[in-house]
Amino acid sequence: MMAEAEAALDEAKRTRRTAKAAFTRRGNTLRKKLKESRPRDEIMEAFHGMKTAFENLVVKHEEYTQLIQDDEAFEAEEKWLEECEDFYLQMEIGAKDYSKAKSVSKGEKSGLDSGKSTLDNGTPVVESGKSGLESGTSELESGAKDSESVIEMEITKQVGNSAGQGKGSVKATAANGTETESGNGHTIAGENPGGNGNNGTIHESSVNTSCGFKMEKPKMPRFAGDVRDYAIFRSDFKHAVDGRYSKRDGISLLRTSLQGRPLDLIKGIGTDYDAAWSYLDSVYGDPRFVADTITQDITKFRPLRDGEDARFCDLVHLVQRSFTTLKEVGRPHDMDNNHMLALIEQRMCTDDRKVWARHLENSGKEATLAQLIVWMNTEMKSRMRATAALRSTGPPTRHPVGHFGSDINAPKSGLPHKCWICKNSSHWTDQCQKFASLNLEDRIKAVKENHACFSCLKRAGRDHRSSNCSRRRQCPEKSNGIQCPYYHHPLLHRAIQSTIATVTSVINNQKALLPIVQVDIVGQGHLLQRANVLMDSGAQISLIRSSVAEALKLKGKHVVITITKVGGQEEELSTKSYQVRIRSLEDRSAHVIQAIGIPCISEDITDVKVADIARQLGLEKGQFRRGNGHVDLLIGIDQAKLHTGETREAGNVVARYSPLGWVVFGAVPGKQSEASHVYHIKLETPVDMTDFWTTESMGVSVKPCNCEAGKLSQIEREEAKIIEESCEKIGNQWLIPYPWKKDPRQLPNNKSQAKKKLEATERRLLKNPDHAAAYDLQMVEMNQLQFSRRLTEKEAREYPGPVHFISHHEVLRPESKSTPVRIVFNSSAAFQGHKLNEYWMKGPDLLNDLFGVVLRFRENQVAFIGDISKMYHRIRIPEMDQHVHRFLWRNLQTHREPDVYVKTVLTFGDKPAPAMAQIALRKTAEEAKEAFPAAAQVIQDNTYMDDICDSVSTTEEARDLTRDIDSVLETGGFRVKGWMSNRAETLSGAPKEEEQKAATFLQGGSVEKVLGVVWDSSTDTFSFAVKSDLLDCQEPIQLSKRKVLSQIARIYDPIGFASAFMIRAKIALQALWRRGISWDEELPPELSERWKGLFQEMVQLNGVRFDRCLTPANAIGQPVLCVFSDASEDAFGACAYARWQLSTGGFNAQFIAAKSRVAPLKKLTIPRLELQGAVLASRLGKTILKESRLKFDKSVFFLDSKIVLAWICSETRRFKPFVSVRIGEIQDNSDPAQWRHVPGEQNVADDVSRGIPVESLAGRWQYGPDFLRLPESEWPQDSPVADEVEVEKEHRKVHIVGEQINTQSPIDCNKFSNWRRLIRVTAYALRFIRRLRARGRKESAEEEKALEPEDGPLSPEELNCAETHWLKESQKTLKDRLSKGEFRNLSPYVDQEGVLRVGGRADKALVSYETRHPVLLPRDHRISRLIVQHAHQFGHPGVAATVAKTRTKYWIVRAHDLAKSVKFRCVVCREIGAKVESQVMADLPKSRLAPFTPPFHHTSCDYFGPYRVRISRNKIAKHYAVIFTCLNTRAVHLELAADCTTMEFMQVLRRFYALRGVPALMISDNGSQLVGAERELRKMIEGLDTEKLQEFSAERGMKWQFTTPAAPHQNGCAESLVKSCKIGLKKAVGEQILTSLELQTCLVEVANLVNQRPIGRIPSDPDDGSYLCPNDMLLGRASSTVPQGPFRHTKNPRHRVEFVQKIVDSFWTRWTRDVFPSLLPRKQWHAEKRNVRVDDFVIVQTSSAIRGTWNVGRVVSVYPGEDGKVRNVKVRTRTGEYERPITKIAVIYPAEGYDDKDK
C-alpha cells in the first residue's frame, strides 16, 4: 500500500511539473507579445491559453497536495503555488489593461468583457448571461422586480471554431427569427429544427464567443399585486407573449405569471384574455395609485442619522426605483417637483443636506430631481468605495480562478479573526465549540485549508509555522497508557485506527514451497539489508519483523494488535506501523509498503534446491532468488499489485513473475503438506471506557462557547432557515425540497447497483412466503396511497434532471403484530464513491428534551398519548427530489424487468428527513397558533418525533385538547393514528352522538410505551418489560464482559425509577474493568454466579409499578421540590420528590426522577464524593424546574454531610480548585439557603449510592422518607456543626508574610489639577522621607554625609521614583479585576519595580520598552485623568490623538471615554470649537394663531434697501423700502421711506394706518441690527428713537414689541419675505434708476405679486379648489385681474354684507384647513437643552469668522420664556453689556462646573 502511495505521489508530482512547464511557456509567450504590442486578438488568444494552462496547473497541484501527509511539505508546496498565482495575476492584469487600452482607442469592448455577437445577416445574438423570451426579442427590462439577474461571464474569441463548440450553450437568433441553443441538441419552443440555410445555425464568421457556463432558460415575469411592478410586468408580458401566442394561450400564460390576489381576481373571467387585462388595468393600472404609493414609500422612510451609509444607499435605490416606476407609468412630474424634492431632502441627515447644498452652491445650478439623483449616485459610489475592504498586502489567498470576493465578516481594523471558523474575535479556534464538534478528518481538513498551525491552531505565516510555534508541545493524549509521540494540538489527535483482520497460515513442512523472494530493504541513512519476503495472498495486512525495523532505524506510528492463537486465546501487543521501502533484485525497482511490526513472523525456512523446478518450468536457476533463515517481511493482499504477474505451472508447483522477481510456491511432488502454525493477527483499537470512571468526566459543568447563542449552532440556524424558506403549502400538505449542499447533477445513475440489490432482496424474501407477501403488500399500499408512483418508460427515459436510485431491503420485526416486515430505503449506499446522504445538509436538531416531555406527561391527572400516522409520508417533495429517490420493484415477478418508481414523499433514513418533518410540524402549529393556542403549544413542546403526549386536569379538557390537536394537524396533512388515555369515561348527560364519539376518542386499558417507557393506562402506572435471553437458554452460560453489558443496556430508564437497583450493576461492571478482564474473556466462576443472580433479580423489575401522576387528586396549593443527594465509596447519586399538601390536612410525596454515577477509579475522599453528589442534585433540581410546568413553592436540597454543607455555605475562593469549582456550580444552580442537613438514616439518596434489592423499590424509594409526610416544623432539626479540621483540609494554604496597615496618604492627588505638579511635590516629599530615614540609621558623620540627599533641583531618578509611587497606588484597584481574568487579552505582567504592565504581542517591535509594554491604569483613578490632561495640553489634539499620545507610555482602561471627558472640559478646546447654544423651538405666540381677525391686526415690520432714486436730472438719493407683514394672513404691504429718521418712519406708519388700519400689535427689530439691511441702512437706522415710536403707537392703542438684537429669527415673518420682495424688485427694476413715484409703483405691484403666492398646502385634488393666498382676504380673489361676473345686483346692503362675510369665512375656513397644519411641526431645534444660567462663562459671536476675536463674557441676566426656557440673555464683556439670543453665544464653562459623569 505504501509503495502505491509513493508511486502515486511521484506520478502526481511529474504530472504537475509538466503542467507547470506548459504554464510557464504560455506565460512567456504572452509576456513577449505584450512587449511587442501585438494586436489585441493575439494578446487575448495568448492570455486564454495561459489561463487554461494555469487552471490545469491548479488541478494537478490539488491532486498532488492531497497525497502529502507531512505538514511542512504541504506548507512549502502551498507557497510554491502562491508564487505561480502571483505570476498569473500579474500577467492577467497586464493583458486586461492592454485590452482595455486597445478597446478605448478603437471604441470596442474588451475581449475580457462580455459582448454581443451577430449573425451573417446582422441579426444580434442575445448577450451572454442575459435571458431572451423569444427569437428576436430584446432583453427583459432591468427595472422588472422579478427579472433574472444578469450574470457576467467571460466570453472570448475562438478562432477557427464553429458556434456549436464550447463548454456551455450559446443562444442565438437565426435569420428566420427562431432561437437555437447550441451544444445540447435541444430546441426552444417556436424554433424550426428542420429549417434550411442559415436557420438555426450560427456561422463561424459571425459567432466568436464561447461560454463556460450553461445558459439558464428565460422565465416568465411574475406579478403578486404590487402596483409598483404592474407597469413593468405588463410591458414584459405583452412583449414576450402578444404576437407570438394566441389569446387562448395568453390567458393560460397569464394565470401562471400571477400570484396571490391578482390571480384570484381573474379566476371568474374564464378565457377572455382582453377582459382579464382590462380588469387588471382597472385595479392596478391607475397611475395615480402608483404615484400615491411611491409618495408613501418616501414619506415612511425613516430619516437618516449621521453615519448610516448603508441606509443612505437604500434611500438612493428607493428614489431611483420610484422615479423609474413613475416614468414607466407616464407620471414623472409627480416626483419631479419641489414638494417631493423637499420631502427627499428631509429624509437625509443634516450632514448630507449640507453636502448637497454645498454641491448646488459650487455648481451654480438650481435644485432639481435630476441633479439630486446624479449627486446621490455619486455620493453613494464614493461611500461604497470608502467602506470597501482594502486590498491585502500579504500573500494572495488561494481561490479558484475567476473568483472575486471579500470576507464581509472581516474585522474593521484589518486584523484577522481570532477564530477562523466562526469569523469573529470573541474566542480562539481551539476554544471554538463549532470546531470541536467537527469530526477529526474535517478538523484536519479545515486546518489545512485555512493554513493554520498544527500546534496552536492559529493562522500560520512566514514567521509562524508548526516547527517554530511557541506552543509546540507533544500531544498529551494517551491510548492504553502510551502517550501520543507526535507534536500537534490535542484536537488533531488521531486515535489508533482499526482495520480488518489478517489470517496468516504458515506452512513450515520441509517438503512445502512457500512463496519466498529476496529483496533489499532500504532504511534510514541509506542502510540496506537483504531480506526474505513471504508473499501471502491470504493475509489482509503486511508484517515486518521488529528487529529488522529497529536495525534499519525505521520510524513508525504506535498501534495495538491482538494476536489470536489456536484455541481462541488472545494476546494484545503494542507495536508500531512502518513505511517500508523495498527494492527488487530483478530490475532494482522500488516499492513502498505499510507493515506492522511483530517479534516473529514464522520459524526459519530452509534452503530448497530449485534447479529441477526451474528446469520443469522452463526457467533459469538464477532467476529464482530464494533465501533461507528468518522471514523478515510478509506482504499481504493489501499490496495487490505485488501479487500479480505471469504464471507458469508444472505439477503442483507454480511460478509467478511478480514485480519483485520470480516466486515459486506449491508442494514437492509426492509429499503432502501439513500446516504447523496458524496465526490470526488483528489490528484494532481496544474499546477504552476509562472515561466512564474518570473524575474529569463527571461533576464539572463546562460552560460552552458563547460565540453562538441559543440551542442551535450557527450552521444549524442557517440550515433551518434554508428549509423553512423553501417550505410551500399545497392544499393542506407541505411540499419541502431537500436542502442540497452539493450539486445533484453530480450524482451517478446507479440503476445497475439498485437492480443487483433488488435481486438479493427478492432471493431473501422468497425463502419465506409470508414475509414476501407482506413486503409486496406494503409496496402496493405505498403506491395506492400516492406515497410513490410508477414511471412510464418514456418519463423514466426522457427526464432531463439528475437521476439516482435508492435500494431497499426488509427488516424483520417479529414482536410487531401489525408490521412484522418493514421496508427500509437505504440512502447511504455508496456507488462510485457517491452517497446520496452526503449530498444533503443534515438540518437542525429540533427535538424536544425527552426528559422534559416525559416529565410533563406525568404532571396532571388525565394523560393522553397519540402517534402521528406515517408522519414522514405526509410531507411531499418536488419532482427533482423524487427522481433522485427512484427505486425498482416488480412484485416479486423475477422473470421480467423491474418497474421504476419514485418516492413522492419524505423518506425515512434520509439525513435531513427528521429536520424537515419537525419543521413542517412546527410550521403547522405556528399557523394555527391564533385559532388553537393550547393545541399549538402542545405540538411544539410536548412532541418527540411522531409521538404526542401530555397531561391535563380533566377528561373534558383532554377531549377538547385532542380534538383541537386533530384540527391543527389536519391543516398540515397530518393525522393521529389513535389516542390513548388513562380515562375512558365520557361526559355524563352528553347526547348519544357525543357519547359514541367519546367512546372512540379515548381508549384505555392497554399497555403502551411512552417514549420507550412502559405505561399501563388501565392502572396509570409505569413498569418495566425485562427479558433475559441468558436465563432462558437451556445450555450452560459462559458469561463475558460483552454479554454482561448487553444485558444491562436492555433496561431503558430515562427517569431513574430503577436507579437504586441498577447502581449495583454499574458498580459490578466497574469491578470487571478494575480486574482488567477483556471483552470476550470468560468470567471467573464466582463472578459469573454473582451476575446470574443479578440477572434473575433484574427480571423481578417486571413486577414493580410507579405512579405516573405527580399530582394527587386531593392536592392543594403548590408543591415543594425536595432533592436528596448522597455518596458512598462506590457511587453517588441524587433523587427528587414532589411534596404536596392534601385537602385532608396531611402531606404526600411523589417520586419525580433520580440520577446515579459510579465513583471514579481514582480514589476520592468521602467528602469529595458527597460534593459530587451535591453537584448532581443541583443539576437535577435545575432541570426539573426548567422542564416542568408545575409551579414549585420552593426547593429544598438535603444531604447528610455536614462538611459539604459547610462548603456550600462558604465563599468558593477559599477552597482548592476541585472544591471551589463545584461549589461555584452548586451556588449558580441553587441558593445556599435552600440546602439543609438530614441524618444519614433518613436520607433516601443513600439507596442510590449503595444499591438496594428490587423488592425494596416499592418502599421509601418510591414515596420518599417518612418525614416528608409531616409538617415542616417536625422535620429533622439536626444542627449541622461540621468538623473544622475536615472543612479546612480543602482550604487553600495561605502564608502570612506580613501585615499591612493602611494609613491616609499625606498627599491627596484629588487636590491637584496638574500631573507635573503632583509628581514634583511627591518627589520632594520622598526626598524628605529618605533624609529622615537616613538620619534614623546613621552610624557616623561620614555615613550621614554620604546618605544625606543633595539639595537643589530634582533629579530624573527622583521624578521616576515619584511617578512609580503613584502608578502603584492607582493599580491597587486592578488586583480584584485582574484575578477575575478581566484583562486576559492584554496579557498583563508585573515588572521588576512592581508596576503592572501590558504584555501584548509586540515584544519584538523596534520601539522603546515603555511603548511596547505601557503601564496599565484604571480609568476611575485621579492620576489617569491628570495624565490624559497632561497629554492633551500639548497642542490640544482630538480624542484619538490624545489617546495615541497617552498610550506611548500608559494604557488606561477606557482611555477614549476619559479623553473625550477631558476634551469636553477643556476651556481652550471649547472656546476654539464650541457650538453656539440652542433651545427647543418656542411655541407660537398668540399673535400668530389668531384666525378670524382682520388683515394686519398683528403686524411685523422691517426695513430693506437702500435703492437709488433720481430726484432731478443730476441728483440721485437713497430711499428705503418698509415691509409690513400680517402675522396671520401672511399678507404684505410695502411703503417707500425717504430716509431712516424717526419722523420719516412715522409718516410711513401714518400711510400704512390709513390704508390698512391700526394694528393691535407691531413687531420690529431693535433698531441697529435689522437683518437684511446693508451697511448704509445700519448706520442710518441707529437714529431711530424707540421711545418716540412707542409713544406714537400708544396714542393709537397699538402695542409695539421689539425683538432682541442679533436675533433675526425672532422676527422671521418679516425677514422671510424680505428676500422675496428684493427678488421681485430686482427683476422689475434691474440696474435702472427710477424716480420716487416709479419706485412706489413698483413696490405696490411687487406687494400684489407677493400676495398672490400660495400659503399652506397646495391642493392635489380638483375638488379641493384652488390654492389659498393673502389676496383671497385682501381682494376676495387670488389676483388683481378683473373678477368673473356678473355679481348679483341688489340694493339691499345686507346682501352685500353677507357676500363679503362669506368671502371672509371661506378664507379662514381654508386657512384652518391648509395653513394651520403647517404651523404645527417644529422645523428645527427639536431637543430640549440645558438652560443658560447666570454666571456661565460664554463667548459672544460676532460678524468675524475668526473665533479668536470673539469676546469672552459672563452671563449677568437671563430672560426665560413662558415655557421656562431661556432664549435671550444679557452678557457682560470687557466692552460693555449686551442683550443677545442664545444662538449668538457659546458656553465654555458652566456656572455649576463639572462632575465625574460629565463627558
Task: Describe the 3D structure.
The chain is an alpha+beta fold and 1799 residues long. It has 52 helices and 54 strands. The chain has a six-stranded mixed beta barrel. Strands 38-37-36-39-40 form a five-stranded mixed sheet. The model is unreliable at 107-213, 388-414, 497-510, 670-676, 699-709, 986-1005, 1568-1582 and 1680-1690 (pLDDT under 50).
Structural class designation: alpha+beta
Mean pLDDT: 76
Main sheet properties:
6 strands, mixed, barrel
- The order of strands across the largest sheet is 7-8-13-9-12-11
Helicity, as a percent range: 25-40%
Low-confidence stretches: 107-213, 388-414, 497-510, 670-676, 699-709, 986-1005, 1568-1582, 1680-1690
The percent range for strand residues is 15-25%
End-to-end gap: 73 Å
- Individual helix count: 52
Number of strands: 54
Radius of gyration: 47 Å
Mass-distribution shape: globular
Key words describing this protein structure:
1799 residues, six-stranded mixed barrel, five-stranded mixed beta sheet, 52 helices, alpha+beta, single chain
List the SSEs and their pairings.
Layout: H1 2-35, H2 40-65, H3 71-106, E1 171-173, E2 179-181, H4 227-241, H5 247-257, H6 261-265, H7 273-284, H8 287-300, H9 309-328, H10 338-347, H11 350-363, H12 369-387, H13 433-437, H14 440-449, E3 478-479, E4 482-483, E5 502-506, E6 512-513, E7 516-522, E8 528-535, E9 542-545, H15 546-551, E10 556-564, E11 570-584, E12 590-598, H16 611-617, E13 633-635, E14 646-650, E15 653-658, E16 661-667, E17 677-683, H17 714-726, E18 728-730, E19 733-735, H18 751-766, H19 769-784, E20 788-790, H20 793-798, E21 807-812, E22 821-826, E23 830-831, E24 834-835, H21 850-857, E25 862-868, E26 875-876, H22 879-883, E27 886-889, E28 899-903, H23 913-927, H24 933-941, E29 943-944, E30 947-952, H25 955-971, E31 976-981, H26 992-1001, E32 1007-1010, E33 1013-1016, E34 1021-1023, H27 1029-1032, H28 1041-1048, H29 1059-1074, H30 1085-1099, E35 1106-1107, E36 1115-1127, E37 1131-1142, E38 1147-1158, H31 1166-1187, E39 1194-1199, H32 1202-1208, H33 1217-1229, E40 1235-1237, H34 1246-1250, H35 1260-1263, H36 1284-1288, H37 1315-1336, H38 1341-1347, H39 1356-1370, H40 1374-1379, ...
Parallel strand pairs: 8-13, 9-12, 19-26, 36-39, 39-40, 43-44, 45-48, 48-49
Antiparallel strand pairs: 1-2, 3-4, 5-17, 6-16, 7-8, 7-11, 9-13, 10-11, 10-17, 11-12, 14-15, 15-16, 18-19, 20-28, 21-22, 23-24, 25-30, 25-31, 27-28, 29-30, 32-33, 33-34, 34-35, 36-37, 37-38, 41-42, 45-46, 46-47, 50-51, 50-54, 51-52, 52-53
Helix pairs in contact: 1-2, 1-3, 2-3, 8-9, 9-12, 21-31, 23-24, 24-25, 28-29, 31-33, 37-39, 42-43, 42-44, 43-44, 49-50
